[in-house]
């Protein structure tokens, strides 16, 4: 009798556990197969940065033209600061025109606008356009590369060392799937960038006899709904690489593959990762980019306070069907901030927690420049202050 009861209990336990165990095993197996042919790969949700899939994501490898993600990031950052405009003219040096590999065939002395150069970089992966922009922004390749590495350090990227702004082979020029995903996450803060990275075809020099047809090296833009970036890469050493971004509904994800053997294999693995993300997860938006969150007092400023806004979209990610529990946002502001203040300067932090667990940490930034107050403004404030005390 005891023996029969024991057998019955075991059977009941097996049947009660097996469905969940099988489901978990199935999910793990499905996840493991997402990029099994790549050297390394990663899949993240953009707003939260949460990792949904990882394969050797910190392995240092040559990034090829995915390098241009950082090049574009520095261009967009400069525009956000108001120090560069799309209409600005950029002159091509002999050195920039001499770049090999992918190019838009710039000639020495040829001028294009920043907007046209961005098209050449984002769509055609132009090495010449990348170098021309690097020299325009910092005066030389070397100074621009210093800025690239400074930005990588600022973003906490530990696997990345840049030697050039193009991705052309150079000893010691390395990155990782993890770092590329975080660079892409940062670049996508600038929403206008996808109007370049998400364009499949366009033209340069349209009103001349040297009209040049641009076709995006990322074919998924045409064949996978929602894909709008970001950058492919290929060299004999790096093989086929891609950092892809796709958006469906409220959810945007970033998938990175290093070292695929063929373009078809690379695109296939990216497709599997995107399918996995959109079928298994959903994003719950909390804040839009540039949403006013707080006002901060500025010492000796032209105005007494400045608006602090979100620097990126802020969301919470869950498995599909999961409830959002106790979400709490906390704001921490810098103290004793004095003018001058630059637009986009980080002056606070917004954190989002779920039952005490940190989900998101994002900078709050100034929505405009603020100069120091002039003599008469400071005098009026002082007199007004004393008048209130004397009342």
From TrEMBL:
The active site is at residues 65, 68, 125. SUPFAM superfamilies: beta-lactamase/transpeptidase-like, Penicillin-binding protein associated domain. Residues 281-372 form the Peptidase S11 D-Ala-D-Ala carboxypeptidase A C-terminal domain. GO terms for biological process: cell wall organization; peptidoglycan biosynthetic process; proteolysis; regulation of cell shape. This is serine-type D-Ala-D-Ala carboxypeptidase. Gene3D superfamilies: D-Ala-D-Ala carboxypeptidase, C-terminal domain, DD-peptidase/beta-lactamase superfamily. Its EC number is 3.4.16.4. One of its GO terms (molecular function) is serine-type D-Ala-D-Ala carboxypeptidase activity. Belongs to the peptidase S11 family. It catalyses: Preferential cleavage: (Ac)2-L-Lys-D-Ala-|-D-Ala. Also transpeptidation of peptidyl-alanyl moieties that are N-acyl substituents of D-alanine. Residues 1-23 form the signal peptide. InterPro entries: Beta-lactam/transpept-like, Peniciliin-bd_prot_C_sf, Peptidase_S11, Peptidase_S11_C, Peptidase_S11_C_sf, Peptidase_S11_N. Keywords: Carboxypeptidase, Cell shape, Cell wall biogenesis/degradation, Hydrolase, Peptidoglycan synthesis, Protease, Signal. Pathway: Cell wall biogenesis; peptidoglycan biosynthesis. Removes C-terminal D-alanyl residues from sugar-peptide cell wall precursors. Substrate binds at residue 231.
